[in-house]
Amino acid sequence: MAASESKERLDPLAKTALWTASMRAREHEREDRLFCDPLASLLAGTEGPAIMQRFEGAVQPGVEDPALAVRTRYLDDQLVAQDGAGMRQFVSLAAGMDTRAFRLPWSPGVTVFELDRPALLTLKDELLERAGVHSRCEWIPLGVDLMADWTTPLLEAGFDRARSTTWLIEGLLYFLDPLECDLLLRQLSEMSASGSRLLADYVGRTVLESAAMASWRMRMEEQGHPWKSGSDDPQSLFAGFGWTVRVAAYGDPDVDYGRWGDAVIAPGVPGTRGRYLVSGELV
Questions:
Q1: b/e map of 204-232 (b: 16 or more CB within 10 Å)?
Q2: What is the reported pLDDT for 1?
Q3: Which residue of 76, 133, 185, 188 lies most exposed, with the fewest beta carbons within 10 A?
Q4: Against a cut of 0.85, is the pTM above it?
Q5: Strands 243-249 and 275-282
Q6: Residue ranges for the chain with pLDDT beneath 70
């Protein structure tokens, strides 16, 4: 199947991965870039930039939201640090067009499982294979439905539930309703050995439901991928599944990288929007 045909089979939510890849490609082109992602443009194709331009033109004209760049750099740093501390099993849920398996300096023996919609990962694999790109770790992409039985395919692919694992949940939780979010967190927690780590991003519920977010939510819903949930107490949310977490808001000293001081999302709207990054450990 040609890559163009695979792309046509992507549902609206899966196509957000092309949009995200285009934002990473834009960051890669900056002289002051926070990370290098030379594969992002390849994976975004022509549709990713078109989606990005349509959305930004409608919701945040003339404003480049720094959240994606900051989030990517922060999570990169966390993953590299956990690799350096001896973690060897990583699982990325809703991995999309993420290229960390190919661009981060993984240690020998690291396995990275990537889970997402089958059509999206098929397209990704086709594009990377055609470009002759090789991963820097043992990369295992798994096409699954995260709202169905994804744990069985993960185990069958070689996941070792007796080993500590780092779980990456990037750009996913707010697309789930509260029951779906709880189900996913319960499933991954049950799969986690002692010493496992978790990295995620989320949004505050109060802010999500505020007037400042109305145009964003409306546009996302129109495109077929609405934001459905948030949490004003993420520590308690994750603690309910056994995780002790630290929550950092965008703009905090270690979640800034020089980009957040004057950040805005749209004229008159502060840049944080109640968004934050979560890092934690299973207790």
A1: bbebbeeeebeebbeebeebebbbbbbbe
A2: 47
A3: 133
A4: yes
A5: antiparallel
A6: 1-8, 56-64, 261-273
pLDDT recorded at residue 59 = 55
- Whether 110 contacts 82, CB under 8 Å: no
pLDDT at 5: 47
Specify the residue for token string 């023996």: 109
* Contact by Cβ (8 Å): 14, 172: no
Residue 114 is inside which H or E element, if any? strand 111-116
- Return the H-helix or E-strand segment holding 180: helix 178-190
Question: What per-residue confidence (pLDDT) applies to 60?
Answer: 54
| Structural domains of the chain in order of their starting residue, each with its CATH number | 66-213+227-282 (3.40.50.150)
Residue 129 pLDDT: 95
Q: Is residue 21 a contact partner of residue 103, using CB atoms and an 8 Å limit?
A: no
Answer for the pair 69, 34: CB distance below 8 angstroms, yes or no.
yes
